[in-house]
Here is the input.
Amino acid sequence: MYSFDKSRLDLAREFKANPFGEHRPDLQYLLNLMRRPDPKRPHFVLMPRQWGESWTLAVMEPGGTSPPRPTNLVFTDAGEAEWHVFKLRWAELAGEELPFD
Amino acid sequence: MTRIMGYCDRWSVRPGDTVNFMVSCIGAESYAAEIVRLKQPEAGPLATPFEPEPVASDVNGRYAGREQALPIGSLAVVTGHPCLERLEAATLVAYVMPTTPSKGRQALFGNWCEASRTGFGLELDEQGSLVLRLGAGRGTEVTLATGEPMRAWRWYRVAGTFDSQSGRMAIWQEPVSRHGFDLDRPIARSAERGCPSTRSMNPLTFAAWQNGETAGPSAWGGLQFAQHFNGRIDRPRIVEGALDHAGIAELMGETGPAAIEHELVAAWDFSLDIGGEAIIDTGPNRLHGTIVNLPTRAVHGHNWTGCINDWTQAPEQYGAIHFHDDDIVDACWTVDFSFEVTSAQRSGVYAAKLTAGDFVFWVPFFVSPPKGEARSKVAFIASTATYTVYLNNKGRFLSSATEVYQGRVTVMDEIDSLLFEYPAMGLSTYDRHSDGTGVAYASRHRPVHNFRPTGRHWNFNLDLCIIDWLEHLGGDYDVITEEQLHEEGMGLLAPYNVVITGSHPEYDSLDMLDAFQAYLRRGGRLMYMGGNGFYWRIAHHPTRDGVIEVRRAEGGVRAWDALPGEYHHSFTGEYGGLWRRNSRAPQKLVGVGFISQGFDKCSYYRRTDAAADPRAAWMFDGIEDELIGDFGILQGGAAGLEIDAVDARLGTPPHALVVAQSENHSNTYEVVAEEVLIPHGATDAIINPEIHADITFFETPNGGAVWSTGSIAFAGSLGWNGFDNNVARLTTNVLRRFAAEEPLPWPGRPEAGA
Here is the structure.
């Protein structure tokens, strides 16, 4: 059974270098774990400011009863947005932030 | 916060037709409306600039803003009748299956009016217990409850009796068990409470209570409705007089209520007119009624044995209607303005642009040439069936599940957000109702978030990239629609040398497939410009335009699965699901069929040896590249999102040529479920060699041909680098050859009779 291992910083580095496309199996397992739906927890969406150019990270509360709540985080690169969400999820799983940005 | 939204009554129009627009404007005193022609989508800095073309029209201008409500929730209703009004003592009986019994008060049936507090009715209370409610006005109400909640998804026989003279009330809540084990038990309650006179001419309703008149939009009769029920109701009956338990059993018996026939007021049989909207009373008063907001029919009732899976073969086992508090088939809004299509309008894709403050909402429609006329040798057929089926796809925003299979965080703009600000906009057939059942009906008669030239590049929006390419080539094309194809058949296609599909023509009726097939047999040419096309069978509503049914039966990549025994469409009785399970796999029509989907990154095609075959080499004129489409606005490639491959087993013609094949897809590309009979793990594109998109060509009899791209993302590469790219060149070569009068030679022996 796959379980999270916070010593696998190589997976974080691989994702940062290539957030989209082919991933090694261990990174894909980790992404599936991070993205697993949880009906009791909020999830993230990206709200476009300019289509294809910039996005605001927003939070959807569970249950689908309210519109997304925008954060103050704006990204001009979709990959950077993915990396930011990855770091948030890593910190939640590990109980500590990644040692690099 | 300022918001504006709207819809129109017709998507497919011709010169002389009028399009009515309905608008709701919130937070602004007025709004602007402008008719425009759409020539491309808003697709960001790498695409053609978004420049809708203004259309001169009297309707362009400012209008007073007003909010229009959305009357959501299904029910059935019978107009008030003297035989109901005079009831001073009565018995109400039905089989019911609640699916969300603890969701709050929910009406079963009766003529109770929530506003006036008059009438009688059976309902569920806050806990899901059966309640009989009587009233003659505010302050006179009496109720009797079982006090035991019903369980979800379990059939019960429920009954209530009252007698205003004796003041006696009684109720029964009895589980109907065929298989399985449950601690549930029959409950009976009675009381003497001085029943008020319930005389009223209120309409009789099922699955909702009327809640008085409304000045705004009404789903029926100028009334608003409340306490919507989630679940099924089967064979409801009303008898004059208060029956005892034995009498109730006789009333609901298989042999009919002979002994109490003279007391019968009504006996509705929902297994009659399953394809329509009537509810039929087989009793002496003929209290026929109508369903409202399209609750689901052709669902099994309390007596389904499991031995019959086709409602047309045993309709008596399909005598239930499944009501939902989130069904909506028509917003019933008042018309705000009307646009008359004149002969001055060229065929094309149009929209009403609605602006209130900074908020912009689009209401597209399609203008075709006069019936029977073609203004071009080229037709683009808009995938109106697929657009309809996807309308208001809320589920993709509800959790991170979308992110799992898309491999990236979901993008959601402020128009998508309307689904959460105004949940009464309703759902799509990719969603589940609030009780967890799949949404089987789609309607375009309501505001929608995902039929517009902005936002996610999918379906209509992405198809505008194909329009963009046709405009770049000079704009010599007509626009026709799938709903016209369903109505008019092959005659719609016949005047054209070539018909071009959208990027994702996924849903087809039998009439649509037959029309394409006939067109190709008589020498027509089809450019299938997408992926996952011709996949699901649909049924059109018999009388309502723009209302489509999808039964997601056995097999397929699907957001929900139809319940066992409910695979046949209610509208037509046809077995639903994948066309490949109906002997019409897409490979038979266009050579390729759905093989995989992924949404994180798109890839490219590599030219094959078959590209040099003299039958196909012409399409690569001017193209030296080995790789085709290693660019594009959709995640960097022309091959991706949903992709198709050839499969001789499923009907790819033996002479079909795969001239280019995609490769190098990512982990998120999993082989489709219908190809994985025994789970084996080797299902993603990293290790499964079956996953690729095939650009495929084959000739059809009498000089016709098919050319398929097998990829939704393909359209997103056409405009790359100002259309100076090998995808645009390849596609344009095919278009020019297909539009020419010269037949494409049939490569085999002549067909018999050819």
